[in-house]
Amino acid sequence: MFYNAFARLDEVFSFNKVSAHCDIPCKIYDPISAQLAVLTMIRMVDLLEELHAKSELSANDQAQFGRLVAQKEEHGLKVKEEIRVIWGDYIKQPQLDAYPQLHELSHSIMLAASKAKQNIDKSACLELLDKVNQFADIFWQSKGVATFKATCPYPPAQQIVYPDLKA
Amino acid sequence: MFYNAFARLDEVFSFNKVSAHCDIPCKIYDPISAQLAVLTMIRMVDLLEELHAKSELSANDQAQFGRLVAQKEEHGLKVKEEIRVIWGDYIKQPQLDAYPQLHELSHSIMLAASKAKQNIDKSACLELLDKVNQFADIFWQSKGVATFKATCPYPPAQQIVYPDLKA
Amino acid sequence: MFYNAFARLDEVFSFNKVSAHCDIPCKIYDPISAQLAVLTMIRMVDLLEELHAKSELSANDQAQFGRLVAQKEEHGLKVKEEIRVIWGDYIKQPQLDAYPQLHELSHSIMLAASKAKQNIDKSACLELLDKVNQFADIFWQSKGVATFKATCPYPPAQQIVYPDLKA
Amino acid sequence: MFYNAFARLDEVFSFNKVSAHCDIPCKIYDPISAQLAVLTMIRMVDLLEELHAKSELSANDQAQFGRLVAQKEEHGLKVKEEIRVIWGDYIKQPQLDAYPQLHELSHSIMLAASKAKQNIDKSACLELLDKVNQFADIFWQSKGVATFKATCPYPPAQQIVYPDLKA
Amino acid sequence: MFYNAFARLDEVFSFNKVSAHCDIPCKIYDPISAQLAVLTMIRMVDLLEELHAKSELSANDQAQFGRLVAQKEEHGLKVKEEIRVIWGDYIKQPQLDAYPQLHELSHSIMLAASKAKQNIDKSACLELLDKVNQFADIFWQSKGVATFKATCPYPPAQQIVYPDLKA
Amino acid sequence: MFYNAFARLDEVFSFNKVSAHCDIPCKIYDPISAQLAVLTMIRMVDLLEELHAKSELSANDQAQFGRLVAQKEEHGLKVKEEIRVIWGDYIKQPQLDAYPQLHELSHSIMLAASKAKQNIDKSACLELLDKVNQFADIFWQSKGVATFKATCPYPPAQQIVYPDLKA
């Protein structure tokens, strides 16, 4: 009943003040979403380079060029969002004490994602993937989950850090 | 050079008519996004049931109730979107010939996601997860990737079909 | 009052389990949204072909080219979404029994929308419109509403299947 | 070829300055999208009033209450967006000269949509529908398309102004 | 308590009918969001003109051209949205009586934003900024807040109407 | 001309590799968007507390409760996005050298925004505003723009850090 509930607000809130520091909290965080977004950026660059092999671009090629750049852009934003969520919602003092490089690494992912967005540059995308894999590795370590590297089962066939759930 | 490109449109398009049947095509499809969304729905129901254990709800509990329902809703939509993308973009005649149940299974996922959205009903969510796991299993089979079942490394600790990339 | 409500959860949910299979349910479904989206794709192709008539493209033409492709892309996605909603939320066993072609037709709309998105190809867009009109015709039939074909009152002046509400 | 194109920018832009005053321009405007959104708001209120008939609300009812309000909210925003597009993109001086009430009518739709969003009030929704129907009637008149009123073929079975395309 | 609340619906709604005419209402309206969006459009045109200075465009330049046009497009839409919100939610009869030009000014902003979206035309963007500044000036006047003009502290270094909060 | 452009890709990219590290770059960053979002959260809490003053909630009050919580939620997300953009796109090594607290401050804003989202707690919102004002102050300092504190000219009438542009 609302009336009583509100009568107990202070108590409720003091309880919340000590306990509630993350969203919902659903505790379902997984760097795979960020990793998939980087893979998509790499894939877009590979396809842009296939267009590059042509001596001239047809109208369809021009349109495809624009679609590829737009997808690269969108997934670059997604990388930033996904990392921001894990960094800003999951990572708290205990994780920062254990992995003091997390602020610097997270920030360097933002800069690397910007560079990969602004350029058609595979090495910039691979540099971003390397940072996101490092982030994923630390994330799984912080949860006590072992990891392994494997080639993702689709293009662009890059090495991804996965949690070892089979063991 | 645009002028030439447009001069060659007919040729270009006849080429495209036989080859182009999917978006971009980036070929990066992964059912994990749909699986994560179902796990989130299950988690929301678990948290809604924790609220249920309380004899009355504070204003914060009321707000949390609304936030949990909204997240469940949003992730139910995400399940539908992710399955629609794989069903509508990746699955073509060869996959339908090999797995004739795909239309029926995909459609049943839509109905199951609606049911899980409209109710605070864990069994409806688990039924949805079971269907999405079946879909994931077929998806990986169709790509010649072996799968295994493992408990996801976060709440709600359900069994998920994963591609076996370690082998 | 919340307390009693939660006390009666089992009863409530068993009721829901048998009755609830669609979203909200608001029962307001109309294929016109999908039809409008296809018309927009056709219109974009017509405008892209007007650009094609030019011997060279100015910077504004280049920008317009990109805007037209982006709009075609966005509306191609909208077609998929709108059809997915009717197929996945409205169409259930009774409609599937009456119109067994609905899975195949819905899936072929997804593939046709992808093709129309990826190409500057009027015939691909017209093929998509034909399929969406077939879908609209079945939809209205399933509701016992007669239909008629008429030219839409705006560009690209294509024949659209409309419900006959005047009778 | 870009170089030449840019060399001719001034000429190009002076041309554009006299001709280009609307988006794209695709010329595909249809008030049906706004009308469908109002119908959805009315439907949400009807369903909210069905909940009202219950002596108490279960947890599922509470969740449904929130989902209905959220849908009403979202569709109220959609009404505003759809009317803003036609008013701001399609309606220009000639339409304003012919229908001087358009600014006042469009603005009153915004206020009526706000009222319908903020209240669970069927009469406020019906008032909004009446204004949107008036807007649709003027829109079709301005295009020289006759209109008729008919009951929409789904709940909430309200009278809608439709273009007469069968004639 | 829900039961009683619903028993008192008529009384509640009659109260709402006379009082509720805006969203939420949060009363936090600020034209700065629209002004920032116009500044971004101007900035995109300046950067597009920097590309113009090049004798030819690399693939990166082509991609950047598309990104700049897309950003200009997106911010043109944002201008329309932000002005629609203030015009449609905040401006009511008292403001219309005091500033009878508001309908015409708001509508002219929509047309000017469309023109600025469709062209790479700095003068069109500056014309839009002038109108949005006029709108901002009237808005602050209507709230009894004095304004001043100053150069915004970032590119494109244009004169913006700001509320004078320092006095 | 595309052919030449692509022929010169390596050269182009090596140029880009040293120069391009931010999005677009449009250089238009303004913390006012984040500040407005926090003000909205505070306002939502004030309105939620007005509801609190009522002995019972009508159906409209229940709906308003949900709308207020949803707006608070949405603006909490906006605070995080706006701060992420400035931290991740604008702040680079020079700013970090001058203001070494920026990582810690940005991260603490994410945690504070989560807390303000999850609770109906004015003090949590005010704590968030204080952090965002600190962030704004450093941002303007880093650009050599003096700041001053003033009460925002709308509810919730809180002290905001503004750039001093009048001087």
Identify the CATH architecture of chain A.
Answer: Up-down Bundle
Tell me, what's the shape of chain A?
elongated
CATH top-level class of chain A: Mainly Alpha
Strand content of chain A: 5-15%
**Alpha carbon gap, first and last residue of chain A:** 49 Å
Structural class of chain A: mainly alpha
What kind of assembly state do the chains in view correspond to? homohexamer
Q: What is the helix fraction of residues of chain A, given as a range? A: 55-70%
Q: Mind describing the biggest β-sheet of chain A?
A: 2 strands, antiparallel
Report the average pLDDT across residues of chain A: 87
Q: What's the short story on this structure?
A:
6 copies of one chain form a homohexamer. Chain A has 167 residues and is mostly helical.
Any chance you could write out the topology, listing elements then pairs?
The structure is a homohexamer of 167-residue chains.
Chain A: H1 2-7, H2 9-19, H3 32-52, H4 59-90, H5 93-98, H6 102-118, H7 122-142, E1 147-151, E2 159-163
Antiparallel strand pairs in A: 1-2
Helix pairs in contact in A: 3-4, 3-7, 4-6, 6-7
Keywords:
homohexamer; 167 residues; mainly alpha; Four Helix Bundle (Hemerythrin (Met), subunit A); two-stranded antiparallel ribbon; 7 helices; 6% strand
Structural write-up:
The structure is a homohexamer of 167-residue chains. Chain A has 167 residues and is mostly helical. The first copy, chain A, has one domain: Four Helix Bundle (Hemerythrin (Met), subunit A), CATH 1.20.120. Chain A contains seven helices and two strands; from the N terminus they run H-H-H-H-H-H-H-E-E. Chain A has helices at residues 2-7, 9-19, 32-52, 59-90, 93-98, 102-118, 122-142; strands spanning 147-151, 159-163. Chain A has a two-stranded antiparallel sheet. In chain A, helix 3 (32-52) packs antiparallel against helix 4 (59-90), helix 4 (59-90) runs antiparallel to helix 6 and helix 6 (102-118) packs antiparallel against helix 7. Chains in contact: A-B, A-C, A-E, A-F, B-C, B-D, B-F, C-D, C-E, D-E, D-F, E-F. Chains A and B meet through helix 1, helix 2, helix 3, helix 4 and strand 1 of A and helix 1, helix 2, helix 3, helix 4 and strand 1 of B.
